[in-house]
């Protein structure tokens, strides 16, 4: 799982370097989750997950509250949840999740971001089958054995537990997200370095220097798009 952790670290570092843009994306995602169900995380599991993710990125409380209040007030904005799949250089695969109020605009922008940077869009299902929808939590200050014992005590089924770069990572089925979270919280662990529902590649690929540079340029172009919320890929970003 080491390479997957490298990719998660890289993703977080990229987001941390673009906080204003990321806060705006979280504001939109929180608004959509709150509007689709109750604007209360205790009764809206989707909202609860988004808020846990937002916490790991230090999204300000004011942005969270503004988005929830907007949903409570019956905001008129409406967004479609879209997924695009595509290919980059040398067998690299990319999944793009978006929230948009203009489907044609978003499709055009995502297609251009792929095409101008050596990639191309694929049809629905052409890439996603090579990824697993996974819940992942990361904590510091515990050993993998400690965490395994904790999960067993609470009868939580997980797919894998690993210890990398001082972090313990727990990988589980998405339906176990809250079970893993509650097991940690029962031990007073409420701060996570990662708390995500993500798409993990079943197999990573390595790119040569030129291809890696082109690939990163493509990913940057996609992530810069206003409507794009999440980008997943199968490239080993290294250390």
UniProtKB/TrEMBL annotation:
Gene3D superfamilies: 1.10.10.200, 3.30.70.980
Keyword annotations: Cytoplasm, DNA-binding, Transcription, Transcription regulation
Molecular function per GO: DNA binding
Every TACO1/YebC-like second and third domain range: 79-235
InterPro entries reported for this sequence: Integrase-like_N, TACO1_YebC-like_2nd/3rd_dom, TACO1_YebC_N, Transcrip_reg_TACO1-like, Transcrip_reg_TACO1-like_dom3, Transcrip_reg_TACO1_YeeN, YebC-like
Domain spans labelled TACO1/YebC-like N-terminal: 3-74
Cell compartments where the protein resides: Cytoplasm
Domain of life assignment: Bacteria
Family annotation (SUPFAM superfamilies): YebC-like
Main location per the UniProt record: cytoplasm
NCBIfam families assigned to the protein according to its UniProt record, in alphabetical order: PRK00110.1, PRK12378.1, YebC/PmpR family DNA-binding transcriptional regulator
PANTHER family on file: TRANSLATIONAL ACTIVATOR OF CYTOCHROME C OXIDASE 1
Family: Belongs to the TACO1 family. YeeN subfamily.
Protein's name according to its UniProt entry: Probable transcriptional regulatory protein PGH26_11915
Organismal lineage: Bacteria, Bacillati, Bacillota, Bacilli, Bacillales
